[in-house]
Specification:
By secondary structure, the protein is mainly β.
């Protein structure tokens, strides 16, 4: 910032700040030189330490991707930008490595084929889990030097013990170790954005942030092969990660204390303990894949903060928002051990237990798919749950320590008063080549039609996309929706006109699933309308469907009506997103028993089009189907009872 003195019109002299242009700092570990000023690629410095020294608010630090890793940590410390002028670290895909060569001459011969290399990494940080590589392969570790067999190591607070094979010396081995603590290190810095950076083989974390750091953004980063976490924030840190790949660490992600993190589009896989592990704080996980980690794929638990403030505070129990995320394998798909969680449109596949809800937690799970699990799909131990519109396959449920087999799914629903609009199906076959998420098996939930599981395909720059399909699941195609009213009712919203008679008495109606009549399966929707006395003549009853999630024009509607020979007037129509209404051919119920009603719009155009935007085109999403009825009711009042079944809707391909 420079200061410019201005002479004002009123004769006052004031000093106003103006911001200098943002600068650039360049570092190149091959051609750079720390004696240079770093202001251009040609004048690049060589070390990250020197580059950081040159950075101020608003600057961009450019790492040259030379094909050779930077064997040093990027220690930003408390260096900060501002909300309008952040410090930007552009990694360009460069790799920071925690490995260091363990020179032969620094090993001490302790006799009996045992050698010792002094290194205090583990003593410097108790959470560090350093390891040794021999020709790029992991050397097996034991707890004590006395336990070592040939070509095994022990890394304790003093250093590394390594036992050579019989007939060999330490010079026969080219050994490397994770001698640096963490890759990117922040402790109190604010308003920093890190892009396209890889941190690997550090004794502790790939990305490690402590203190009170606000306004942190990470884009397309990778943390891999680290001793503890791929990515970890602590204490009072707030960070957003937009694209990340965290694999082959102890924990892919581990955020603790009262930290606040938001992850969008991350792939977390093949970690030795857990995928995304949250202890206290507030965390968001959206549009992500967490798979094949040894323990829980996603876990929320309590933490303590006595080193910061009071041991327990409002955020120490933890909060999690999880949406449109897929987990595969592991001990749990998601485990909420403490705190509060809102989980929707996720798929939990192939874990031992799909979802664990611990005691004294508050969890809302709506619109999820849990299937292909080894032991059970759901284990819920807290009565403070809201579970609904989920799909379980095959549906092995534990509620408050009472286990329910799939055959007793309806008993579980009644006992728990949960999952009223959820379904249980036989487990579909899982085809890895086709992806693991779920399209279809529509459920009506309130006014909307939903499809449990992730709503959209998940793509990452780190590997093949995860597609939204499963082989073996009996559902309709994306251009065709079918409803047999076996478990969900997509046609249930009633709007009488007028709503009351002249005396103010209301029309009362329900449209619910019933076993009294069915065209296929065991159920249909039963419409019951009670009209008050005192207003004779025809009434208008409009039966609305849930909102259908289609953006394409509807080309055909089919459903079946159970006729009573009453000559009841009926007329189907389509209502688009703008409210424009497309009326189909009308008829009278002059038959008895079931009859299919078909409106093929390619053969029969709408008889009239009203309201909405007036463009005479079906505009979605969403679409609604309406069945208009005009019963003749006497002055004494009366009832209308009607059954509908087997609704199918076709859209343009």
């Amino acid at each position: 910032m420079r200061f410019v003195a201005l002479l004002c019109l009123f004769g006052f002299v004031s000093v106003l700040p103006t911001w200098s242009e943002a600068g650039n700092v360049y570092v190149n570990n091959q051609t750079g030189n720390d004696a240079q000023d770093g202001t251009s690629a040609e004048q690049a410095v060589q070390t990250l330490k020197q580059a950081v020294e040159l950075c101020t608010a608003g600057d961009t630090l450019h790492l040259a991707n030379t094909g050779r890793e930077y064997r040093e940590s990027l220690i930003l410390g408390s260096r900060s930008g501002t909300p309008s002028t952040p410090i930007i670290v552009e990694g360009n895909g460069a790799v920071l490595s925690g490995l260091m060569t363990l020179p032969v001459e620094q090993w001490q011969d302790r006799g009996n084929s045992l050698y010792f290399f002094p290194c205090t990494v583990r003593k410097q940080m108790s959470a560090a889990r350093p390891y040794v590589l021999w020709n790029g392969k992991l050397v097996p570790q034991k707890k004590s030097p006395a336990d070592l067999a040939a070509e095994e190591c022990c890394w304790n607070n003093k250093g590394i013990h390594f036992r050579v094979a019989k007939g060999k010396g330490i010079s026969d081995y080219k050994l490397e170790g994770t001698g640096r603590i963490s890759g990117l290190i922040l402790s109190g810095g604010n308003y920093i954005e890190v892009r396209n950076l890889i941190c690997e083989r550090f004794a502790n974390d790939g990305f490690n942030v402590h203190g009170s750091c606000q306004g942190l953004v990470f884009r397309n980063i990778t943390g891999r092969w680290n001793g503890d976490d791929g990515f970890s924030i602590h204490e009072d840190v707030g960070a957003v990660v937009l694209g990340g790949h965290f694999h082959h660490n102890d924990y892919g992600i581990q955020d603790i204390n009262i930290s606040r993190s938001s992850f969008y589009g991350v792939l977390v896989e093949n970690n030795r303990r857990a995928g995304a592990d949250f202890h206290g704080g507030v965390h968001t996980l959206i549009d992500s894949v967490i798979r094949n980690n040894a323990g829980p794929q996603v876990q929320l638990s309590q933490d303590r903060t006595k080193h910061m403030r009071l041991a327990m505070g409002p955020l120490t129990d933890g909060m999690l928002i999880m949406k449109n995320t897929l987990t595969i394998g592991g001990e749990y798909g998601v485990a909420v051990q403490a705190g509060k969680a809102d989980i929707s449109n996720c798929s939990f596949v192939g874990a031992k237990v799909g979802a664990l809800i611990g005691p004294e937690t508050e969890v809302e799970m709506i619109g999820n798919a849990i299937y292909g699990c080894k032991n059970q799909e759901l284990e819920a131990r807290s009565p403070s749950c809201i579970l609904d519109a989920n799909l379980y396959a095959p549906g092995r449920i534990s509620w408050m320590d009472q286990r329910y087999k799939p055959i007793a799914f309806d008993t579980y629903q009644k006992t728990s008063e949960q999952d009223a609009d959820s379904v249980m199906i036989n487990a579909p076959s899982l085809a890895e080549s086709e992806g693991f998420s779920l399209f279809g098996h529509g459920l009506s939930y309130g006014r909307h039609l939903i499809q449990p599981g992730i709503k959209k395909d998940l793509t990452f720059p780190f590997g093949a996309p995860v597609r939204n399909t499963i082989k073996g699941l009996p559902v309709a195609s994306k251009s065709h929706l079918k409803f047999n009213f076996a478990t969900s009712n997509p046609w249930s919203r009633i709007y009488p006109s007028p709503e009351k008679n002249k005396a103010g008495q209301a029309v009362v109606g329900t449209a619910t699933l019933s076993e009294e009549q069915s065209h296929s399966g065991e159920k249909s929707v039963k419409l019951v309308i009670s009209f008050p006395a005192g207003q004779p003549g025809p009434w208008l009853v409009k039966l609305f469907s849930v909102k259908l999630p289609t953006a394409k024009p509807i080309t055909e509607i089919k459903f079946v009506l159970f006729g009573d020979g009453s000559d009841l007037f009926y007329q189907p129509r389509i209502r688009d997103a703008s409210g424009e209404c497309f009326y189909g051919p009308s008829g009278k119920m002059n038959w008895q028993g079931w009859r299919e009603i078909t409106w093929d719009l390619s053969r029969t155009a709408p008889v009239s089009i009203y309201s909405g935007d007036g463009n005479k085109k079906q505009d979605g999403p969403t679409m609604e189907l309406v069945l208009e009825l005009k019963p003749e009711i006497s002055s004494e009042g009366g009832h209308l009872i009607l059954y509908l079944d087997d609704l199918s809707v076709s859209m343009e391909e």
